Amino acid sequence: MQIGLVGLGKMGGNMRERLRNAGHTVVGYDTNPELADVNSLVDLVEQLERPRAVWVMVPAGAATQSVIDQLGSLLRHGDTVIDGGNSRWTDDEKHAEELAKHGINFVDAGVSGGVWGLKNGYALMVGGEKEVVDDLKPIFDALKPEGPYGYVHAGKVGAGHFSKMVHNGIEYAMMQAYAEGWELLEKVDSVDNVREVFRSWQEGTVIRSWLLDLAVNALDEDHHLDNLRGYAQDSGEGRWTVEAAIDNAVPLPAITASLFARFASRQDDSPQMKMIAALRNQFGGHAVEAAKK
C-alpha cells in the first residue's frame, strides 16, 4: 500500500521505517529537509496515487491544524487524512467536519510505543467510519505489534484519541506509584540496594510491567538518579483526562493526584519526579533536565 507521512521526528521517522520494512511505499515530508523524501506537501500529494492516504505525525494544536488546513486544499474527494499525533479528541471532530466539506475522509489514531515502536510495534487506537478504517487496515497491521493484540477500532471519530488520552492518564498514575515506592525505599536505612529490589519485582510479582522494566533500565544507567533534576513535564493528556472525568462525573483520584504531583515537581527538586523523568525518557525519549550542581 502507498501512504504519505507528514512529520518524521522520533516516532514518525521510525514509523516510516517500519512501514517500509513491511513492504509499503511511504512518501515522507518534514520541515527538516535532511529527513524528508520530498520538498513540500504539494510534492508529497503529487507523488501519491488516488485515493490517497496521508498520515500526520506533528505536534497537537496549531501545527496539526496547519497541516490539515493545507491538506484540505490539496487532497480530493475520496482521499483520507489520518491524525496520529496526540490531538485532543474534540479537535478530531472539528477536523473531520472541515475535511468532509471537501469530500475528504478523516481518521484519528492514538499511537503508543515511543522510541521502542520500530522494534516492538505500536499500539493503535483508531476512530473513524468502518469502511474508511478497513481500507487502511494493511497500514495498521504493519505498524502494530505481532500477534492478535495491539490494534483496536475504538469507535467513531475522536474515539482513538480519547482512548489514547485515557491510556496516558493511567500511565501517569502507574509511574507515580513506582516513583513513590522508589523514594520510600531510598529513604530508609535498612534497604541498601533499591535498584536490585526493583529488579527482583520483574518476575513473579503482581506489579511487574514494561514500566517496571524501564525503571530498572534507568537505575542501571544512574543508580540513584543523581544526575537528574526532579522535574517532570506533562504533555497535556493527563489534564484532558481529568477534565473529561469532571465533565462525565467520573472519580479519578489516582490519575488526578499524579497530575498534581507533576505540578509540584516544578516548585522544588522532587526525588519522585526523578523517577518519573527517567521513565518518560526511557519509553518516549522525552527530554530530561540535569541535576543542579
UniProtKB/TrEMBL annotation:
Q: Which SUPFAM superfamilies match?
A: 6-phosphogluconate dehydrogenase C-terminal domain-like, NAD(P)-binding Rossmann-fold domains
Instruction: Please name the Pfam families in this protein's record.
Output: 6PGD, NAD_binding_2
Q: Which UniProt keywords apply?
A: Gluconate utilization, Oxidoreductase
- EC? 1.1.1.343
* EC class (word): oxidoreductase
Mind telling me which SMART domains this protein's record contains? Answer: 6PGD
Instruction: Give start and end of each 6-phosphogluconate dehydrogenase C-terminal domain.
Output: 160-293
The answer on whether this UniProt entry bears the keyword Oxidoreductase reads yes
GO molecular function per UniProt:
oxidoreductase activity
NCBIfam families in alphabetical order: gnd_rel (TIGR00872), PRK09599.1 (NF007161)
User: Which family does the record claim for this protein?
Assistant: Belongs to the 6-phosphogluconate dehydrogenase family. Belongs to the HIBADH-related family.
Q: PANTHER family recorded for this chain? A: 6-PHOSPHOGLUCONATE DEHYDROGENASE (PTHR11811)
Q: What is this protein called?
A: Phosphogluconate dehydrogenase (NAD(+)-dependent, decarboxylating)
**What's the source species for this entry?**
Streptomyces rochei (Streptomyces parvullus)
